[in-house]
Amino acid sequence: MSIETIPLFGLGTWRSEPNEVGNAVKEALKIGYNHIDCAHIYQNESEIGEAFKSSFNSGINRNDIWVTSKLWNDSHRPEHVKSALKHTLSNLKLDHLDLYLIHWPIAFKHGITFPSIKDEYELIENIPISETWQALEECVKEGLTRQLGVANFTINKLKPLIKNSEIKPTVNQVELHPYLAQNDLKDFADENGVILTAYSPLGAPHLERNVDMIKIMEDDIVVSIAKEKDLSPAQVLIAWAINRGTSVIPKSSNPGRLKQNLEASYIELSKTEMEQLNSLDKGLRYIDGTFFTTKSPYTTEYLWG
Ligand code: A2P
Q1: Mind listing the pLDDT tens digit for each residue in 82-134?
Q2: How many CB atoms lie within 10 A of CB 213?
Q3: How far apart are CA 166 and CA 137, in angstroms?
Q4: Which end of the chain, C or N, has fewer beta carbons within 10 A?
Q5: Using CA positions, which residue lies closest to atom 17 of ligand 1?
Q6: pTM, whole model, 2 decimals?
């Protein structure tokens, strides 16, 4: 029997370096992770596939592990959807995914990894999400993925998808941490049976940032709760996500931090601690999508509106 719904805690693999990600996945599966979040665009799926193969050969059961991947923006046309999914499956050395997401609500010309000029984009009007979705539904019917979802979708983009689809999205993966709680989206998701998955839950510490962009792991409240409970700030942030009822996928390639993060998924925060963390919300997006809105037909208003 496979897992029915997305496990709340998982391993993120965005920016997991080659020659590093395979060991991270093997170590994670060995110590009890049961959810690995992947994407074609992370360009590390074949190494993850080798790690799956070796882990499944050494006693871990594929059906006990939840695997998510994501359709890249250049494969939204219905005729490209199935081959993109099959390519990911071949890289991951799996015969099916548990969840396949539309990575962003924007489209590129086929074969363009990252557009550098406006012409390399496709207008979403020319490839509506509904058409991409129908092709994804066919993939479910063929057994290539068990569930479907989206990432970086706002309420306005989720609404028509939920209303018009035969197979409903089960997950919306978005940036979430106490500085970007997205409470309206969370309420909408709860009302519509969609689970939110939190990406960059530690505030994407690898990012270069301007002076106004405070690192959430250095926030006074996060640090003081961590000290009081003898935890790390990262553990407080992971516990906040789980206690709030979202799924969360911190990335790490370090064995000690992999273990620490998994342990955080069992930590209970008190009502007061949750309230203190909830009070930090200020709508701060670390991943603001501007890489898709310069020299592009897409605007920030479209992306987050
Ligand atoms: P590393 O792989 O060396 O552990 P996010 O998921 O928000 O993008 O954060 C991922 C980043 O946070 C990675 O750079 C990762 O580095 C680091 N990280 C992961 N777990 C922890 C932790 N428990 N404490 C501090 N940093 C962490």
Answers
A1: 999 999 999 999 999 999 999 999 999 999 999 999 999 999 999 999 999 99
A2: 15
A3: 8
A4: N
A5: 252
A6: 0.97
Q: Using an 8 Å Cβ cutoff, are 166 and 116 in contact?
A: no
Element containing residue 283 per DSSP (H, E): none
Q: What residues are labeled active site?
A: 42
The residue written with tokens 């984009």 in the block is 121
Residue carrying the six token digits 């049961």: 34
Using CB atoms within 10 Å of the CB of residue 94, give its burial: 0 to 12 exposed, 13 to 18 middle, 19+ buried: buried
The Cα–Cα gap between 120 and 114 comes to 8
Residue 263 to residues 8, 197, 201, Cα–Cα distance (Å): 13, 18, 15
Pocket test for ligand 1, best of 19, 215, 252, 265 (most atoms within 8 A of CB): 252
Distance 250 CA to ligand 1 centre (A): 7
Render pLDDT for 29-42 as a digit per residue (tens, 0 to 9): 999 999 999 999 99
Predicted confidence (pLDDT) per residue in 161-210, tens digit: 999 999 999 999 999 999 999 999 999 999 999 999 999 999 988 776 66
Q: For 140-176, give the secondary structure using H, E and C.
A: HHCCCEEEEEEECCCHHHHHHHHHHCCCCCCEEEEEC
Output the CA–CA distances (angstroms, integers) from residue 190 to 183, 193, 220, in the order listed. Answer: 10, 5, 30
